[in-house]
Amino acid sequence: MATAAYLRANHPGARCFLLGIDDIAEDLEGIELVKGRADVVVVGGADEAFHFDNLNRAFRMVLAGAALVAMQRNLSWMEADGPSLDAGAYILGLEAATGVDAVVVGKPSPDFFRSGLDLLGLPAERVAMVGDDVLYDVLAAQAVGITGVLVRTGKFRPEHLGAAGGSPDHVVDSLADLPALIERTRESD
């Protein structure tokens, strides 16, 4: 929905090529989706659509002048059978190959987190972001004043924490640890 709002505001009436999950097309209601000659290449989450023909089609559209918009910039995500590459890895390649920087409307964009706060109707100091990605979840949320909670499940890797360039407000082993963390935080307020 954040992507659709961005496209309506910044590329009204644009013809958009969606690279990625077809399921998200319903969230892009009112956006014209095309298979060729697009004004905007929209990169969703990585899936089977990220094959050579589609990636090359997106590459050529950006070279021909299409804007590059990414729904998020995560490098990987966790599937049932293990970690998988996510859209961020492909975005890096498209940026390097085209010389065009993607506009990121989802994580880790500060505007994305601010719009979440607006939707919640809460100030940043009353909200926590719980995630398994120290850079794109936790530190990105902290950049706008949201409490960052890193959970050591999913795609968490200890070496990412050490190389992050910042520290989460809290680190928990499991989502099951959140109620106790919330209780401790309330008691200290």
Provide the fold topology.
Layout: H1 2-10, E1 15-19, E2 32-33, E3 40-43, H2 52-63, E4 67-70, E5 76-79, E6 82-85, H3 87-98, E7 103-104, H4 110-120, E8 128-131, H5 134-142, E9 147-151, H6 158-162, E10 170-172, H7 178-188
Parallel strand pairs: 1-2, 1-3, 3-4, 4-7, 8-9, 9-10
Antiparallel strand pairs: 5-6
Task: Give an overview of the whole structure.
The protein has 189 residues and is of the alpha/beta class. It folds into two domains: 2-104, HAD superfamily/HAD-like (Rossmann fold); 121-188, HAD superfamily/HAD-like (Rossmann fold, 3-Layer(aba) Sandwich). Helices cover 37% and strands 20% of the residues. The chain contains seven helices and ten strands. The chain has helices at residues 2-10, 52-63, 87-98, 110-120, 134-142, 158-162, 178-188; strands spanning 15-19, 32-33, 40-43, 67-70, 76-79, 82-85, 103-104, 128-131, 147-151, 170-172. The strands form three sheets. A five-stranded parallel sheet has the order 2-1-3-4-7. Strands 8-9-10 form a three-stranded parallel sheet. Strands 5-6 form a two-stranded antiparallel ribbon. Helix 2 packs across helix 3. The chain is globular. The protein starts with a helix and ends with a helix.
User: How large is the count of helical segments?
Assistant: 7
CATH architectural designation of the largest domain: 3-Layer(aba) Sandwich
Structural class: alpha/beta
Strand content is 15-25%
Largest sheet: 5 strands, parallel
| Assigned CATH superfamily of the largest domain | HAD superfamily/HAD-like
3D shape: globular
For the biggest β-sheet, the strand order reads: 2-1-3-4-7
CATH topology of the largest domain: Rossmann fold
Q: Give the helix proportion (percent range).
A: 25-40%
Helix and strand succession? HEEEHEEEHEHEHEHEH
Distance between the termini: 35 Å
CATH class of the largest domain: Alpha Beta
Mean pLDDT: 93
